[in-house]
Amino acid sequence: MVHFLTCVTCFYLGLFSLAHEQNPLSFLSGLFGGLLVVVAVGWQQHFGGLEETRRFFFSHIYPQLESVSPVILKKNFQ
Description:
The chain contains 3 helices and no strands. By secondary structure, it is an all-alpha fold.
């Protein structure tokens, strides 16, 4: 219910704030810029970011843990 109300609020906020806008290019360029940032972060994570996180975990965090859950080890060795 909270998600639905948030979506309705954002819809009407956008409707009322952009209804009188003659040139929505600045708004659309902001949306497109945000999309490019999300895609860039996704590409970086897919091509090396997760492996870098795995190496950091096993070199810095894993040696300091007293007991490690088998679920964590299974996720990190797949």
